[in-house]
Amino acid sequence: MNLRISDLLELGFDPTKLREFRHGGVQYIFERVSPRFLPSIRRKRELLPKIVDLSSGMRFRHARIQINPPLAILRDRGNAYILRRKVEGIHAEEVLDQLRTSSYLKGMNRGAKIDRAVLATIDEIREWLAKTLDPRLREEIEELIFFIPWNPERNIPRVSVDAAGVFLDTLWVA
Question: For the whole model, what pTM was predicted?
Answer without folding.
Answer: 0.84
